[in-house]
Amino acid sequence: xxxxxxxxxxxxxxxxxxxxxxxxxxxxxxxxxxxxxxxxxxxxxxxxxxxxxxxxxxxxxxxxxxxxxxxxxxxxxxxxxxxxxxxxxxxxxxxxxxxxxxxxxxxxxxxxxxxxxxxxxxxxxxxxxxxxxxxxxxxxxxxxxxxxxxxxxxxxxxxxxxxxxxxxxxxxxxxxxxxxxxxxxxxxxxxxxxxxxxxxxxxxxxxxxxxxxxxxxxxxxxxxxxxxxxxxxxxxxxxxxxxxxxxxxxxxxxxxxxxxxxxxxxxxxxxxxxxxxxxxxxxxxxxxxxxxxxxxxxxxxxxxxxxxxxxxxxxxxxxxxxxxxxxxxxxxxxxxxxxxxxxxxxxxxxxxxxxxxxxxxxxxxxxxxxxxxxxxxxxxxxxxxxxxxxxxxxxxxxxxxxxxxxxxxxxxxxxxxxxxxxxxxxxxxxxxxxxxxxxxxxx
Length: 443
Ligand SMILES: [Fe+2]
Description:
The chain is mainly β. It folds into two domains: 4-288, Jelly Rolls (Sandwich); 290-426, Jelly Rolls (Sandwich). The protein is built from three helices and 30 strands. Strands 20-13-10-15-8-7-30 form a seven-stranded antiparallel β-sheet. A six-stranded antiparallel β-sheet has the order 6-26-25-29-22-21, with no helix packed on it. The termini are far apart. Fe (ii) ion binds at residues 344, 346, 350, 374, 380.
């Protein structure tokens, strides 16, 4: 590893001092230099301080206000000042449509990714598990893992195909984006909107985690219905960055993911040169421990949709392109109730990951950094050990507080990449966890 130690120490210091704007989907504004943000108009004849005005649209100009996303950026040089992009190696990144394997009705589970080679940064360390839809049609999603041990240096990444929901599992990240800096540690999630350029530095020796690349409608907070005006993720717990810019006249590689391929162009300056901005197309971070977990106080338990942090709606009401769901610490108090997640077959497809501890439906084998895929209509639920224990448990109030798991739940089946379907770390014999569920029937 090169200068991992000292650069991560520096990144940690920066992360500790970060300030944020709060709220979800707000029309935020921020300026790193007083007077940099124009008032009363977006594109004055001459922008303040000799800056260039540039709009970044995350939705069509004409989408309804509730879905409309755009930010105005006031920058040292316009993004347009670049040489041609040329194709570069896609590494282990893959994009929908996923056709390397056929969709598999079997339940699949993986151990964590092996440690990466030295000097692997976040972008080089992205490894695609699978996904669905079609990036060129802006439908569906991809599931990626990342494993990194070096900061991105003199290069930035932007994804034209979708927004990136990043879930760190090991090691913290410092995200330097066009709109400012954010940090995300295990237990937090970060979101980089479509098209926003960013660079990832490491707060620790190495970093590992999960990414949902959402090709569809941007994530939004779910409606609350009869829950009322409060509950689940609170809008004010989402944090957006304040403006921070780099004035660096040094070649910087911009890697752009476009319709599944990586393209590269070297700017003669850092494109993270936005001095002020305002708008709704912003990165954000959220601490999942802030999630207000709601459950039954009588019997049974609600469907896991009650744990939805964010949802990407589709054209059909109630049918998400993808939901981000978190299984956070909570009390179980249900009377005459089998309390772990029940056996079920689901028309939606479920990819689960584990950030820390254990998940209450699986006694073993589902480990932090690993993942499971239960595709459309596949039968799953508690393993035998969990079933036996929960069926015999004394039903006193019980705190589940030793784990943090999450799910990317999507309306379409997930097709694995060839590398995921044939991976060394794919657990052969996952079906065995449901073996030995004894026959108890007595007529
Ligand atoms: Fe499930």
